[in-house]
UniProtKB/TrEMBL annotation:
This is Homoserine dehydrogenase. Pathway: Amino-acid biosynthesis; L-threonine biosynthesis; L-threonine from L-aspartate: step 3/5; Amino-acid biosynthesis; L-methionine biosynthesis via de novo pathway; L-homoserine from L-aspartate: step 3/3. It is an enzyme of class 1 (oxidoreductase). NADPH binds at residue 105. It comes from Thauera propionica. GO terms for molecular function: homoserine dehydrogenase activity; metal ion binding; NADP binding. L-homoserine binds at residue 190. The keyword Transcription regulation does not apply. Its cofactor is a metal cation. Residues 355-432 form the ACT domain. GO terms for biological process: methionine biosynthetic process; threonine biosynthetic process.
Amino acid sequence: MKPINVGLLGIGTVGGGTFTVLKRNAEEITRRAGRPICITTVADKNLELARKVTGGDAKLTDDAFAVVTDPEIDIVVELIGGYGVAKELVLKAIENGKHVVTANKALLAVHGNEIFAAAQKKGVMVAFEAAVAGGIPIIKALREGLTANRIEWLAGIINGTTNFILSEMRDKGLPFADVLKEAQALGYAEADPTFDIEGVDAAHKATIMSAIAFGIPMQFDKAYVEGISKLDAVDIAYAEQLGYRIKLLGIARRREQGVELRVHPTLIPAKRLIANVEGAMNAVLVQGDAVGATLYYGKGAGAEPTASAVIADLVDVTRLHTSDPEHRVPHLAFQPDQVRDVPVLPIDDVITSYYLRMHVEDKPGVLADITRILADSSISIEALIQKEAAEGETHTDIILLTHQTVERNANAAIAKIEALPVVQGKVTKLRMEGL
């Protein structure tokens, strides 16, 4: 049977892994796809690298636009990344009637609505399993495996860099800055780690998952994003004492008034499986009304794990290449005319529990003042630690865990607590999820 011809844009880490795995497992993949899948053309600015990886088994060019307009190419794999030229190339490939496979979560989270509309109009597929959680087939699970369910919420450790940093901070008791340097030295963090440590990368992925889970458009600009750079090692230690682990979670939750879409450091009970995901691993927990909770765990990055997802998409597109566009799985799981523009709730309207740490004068009546303020805001306390003041010290820490409340109520109570003359500095606030 005639092979499917693939044009690969970018042969860096994931592109190289894709080329290698596709070649190594060619026979197995052909048996599954029903016809050979061949990367016939590779576009990369670094032709020397491309030559080294391909070993002369593909045509090479430094002009990616020549690939997306080549009539011989059936599927374009975009592994360049970013919002700029990648968007132009993807739209040009679609315009030329080519299916697209991409690992570009930033592009889809920001421009996905436009890209999917263009693909729908042209009758081509855009597949993006590799855009979220590397080799874990979470997109397929949400879009197909859980299709009988009304998905209630999902929560994911979807950035390996931050999970590695938090694991090291907990294990070694080191401050954030020291562990970040270690992560950079080991290759887990980029030279400029901003997208990872400030939660932007996780927010891109959470945006994509929320759209598929709830049948809503991509709304990255509405996501609440908070990273781990200001997290103190002392809070990780206190959380541990209280039976919790701190993880950077991407959370999407269905509410009556809309959808919560947020990324932030979160306390999770240590007995939960997801709380024990360590190092650079990823995990996504999905709650469906019929199936209950399902957990997806594995490598969220790396050459071959991500290549695994890229090639799974190539096989899917190959199987459906000649099918009627009306009978394919919709991009966002729901039929395009059934995608609903449900509002994403502002962070002030989010309902969750809180960890509060405050540095206070060590004298009678302080705790009573604080608990009175919380009670006036209808916030009840689940657990409390009051540390003994060190010898010669006049201040100590109070740590409170609250029951669920609306964020705006928590913020109003915190402002009143900070105004007390016995409270020194700002109150540290972290959100908690029971999952």
